[in-house]
Design goal:
Belongs to the binding-protein-dependent transport system permease family. The chain is mainly α and about 210 residues long. It contains 8 helices and no strands. The protein is about 85% helix and about 0% strand. It starts with a helix and ends with a helix.
Length: about 210
C-alpha cells in the first residue's frame, strides 16, 4: 500500500490524463450506442419480426469475446482509440436496444390510445409520451452498458489505445503491483460511480414520471 500511495503521489498528473482518456473513450462509445441503439430499439418495438432481427443481431455481437472483437476491429480499422471506441459502441448496443425495446413495449396501451384520441401523430406519441415513459428502462440499459464499457476499455492498450489499461498492463509486464493498482483501482471506482450515478438518475426519472 505504501508503494502504491507513493507511486500515485509521484505520477498523479499522468494518472489524471489516463483517467480522462479512459472516460472519453467510454463516453464516446456510449454516445454512439445511444444514438444508434434507441432508434433500433424503437423499430424493434414496432413488431415481432423486426424485434427478432434486431435483437438477434445485437446478441450475436455481444457473444464475441471482447478481446476477439477488438482484434477483428484492429484488422479492419487499425490501431488506436478510434478502434477502441467502435468496439465499445458495439458492446454497448445490446443493453441500449433491449432496454429501449422493453421500455416501449411496457407503455400502457391506454395511454397511447388517449394520445391518439387527442390527435397526436405517431411521431408526437413517440417523442412526447412513449419515450419519456420508457426513459427509466433506457437509463438502465445505459447503466449496464457503461459498466461493461469501462471494463472493456481496460484492454485498449493491446490494440494501441490509451486509458487506465496502460498502467494495468505496464504493472503486469514489469511485475510492479503499484502500477497495476494505479490503473485497476481508478477503473473500478469509475465503474462504481457510473453505476451509482445512473441508478440515481433512473430513480429520479421514475419518480418524476409518477408525479
Amino acid at each position: 500500500m505504501e508503494l502504491f500511495l507513493q507511486y500515485v503521489g509521484e505520477n498523479w498528473q499522468d494518472l489524471l490524463v489516463l483517467t480522462y482518456q479512459h472516460i472519453l473513450m467510454v463516453v464516446s462509445g456510449l454516445a454512439l450506442a445511444f444514438a444508434v441503439g434507441v432508434p433500433l430499439g424503437t423499430l424493434a418495438a414496432r413488431g415481432p419480426r423486426l424485434a427478432g432481427v434486431i435483437l438477434t443481431s445485437a446478441n450475436i455481437i455481444q457473444v464475441f469475446p471482447s478481446m476477439a472483437l477488438l482484434v477483428l476491429l484492429m484488422i479492419l480499422f487499425g490501431l488506436g482509440n478510434g478502434t477502441v471506441i467502435i468496439g465499445l459502441f458495439l458492446y454497448s448496443l445490446l443493453p441500449v436496444i433491449r432496454n429501449t425495446y422493453v421500455g416501449l413495449t411496457q407503455v400502457n396501451p391506454a395511454i397511447t390510445e388517449a394520445g391518439r384520441g387527442v390527435g397526436m401523430s405517431p411521431l408526437q406519441l413517440l417523442v412526447s409520451v412513449q419515450l419519456p415513459l420508457a426513459l427509466p428502462f433506457i437509463l438502465t440499459g445505459i447503466r449496464i452498458a457503461a459498466v461493461i464499457a469501462i471494463g472493456v476499455a481496460t484492454i485498449a492498450p493491446l490494440i494501441g489505445g490509451q486509458g487506465l489499461g496502460r498502467e494495468i498492463y505496464s504493472g503486469i509486464n514489469m511485475d510492479n503491483p503499484a502500477r497495476l493498482y494505479a490503473g485497476a483501482i481508478p477503473a473500478a471506482v469509475l465503474a462504481l460511480l457510473a453505476d451509482y450515478g445512473l441508478s440515481r438518475l433512473r430513480r429520479s426519472t421514475r419518480t418524476a414520471g409518477r408525479a
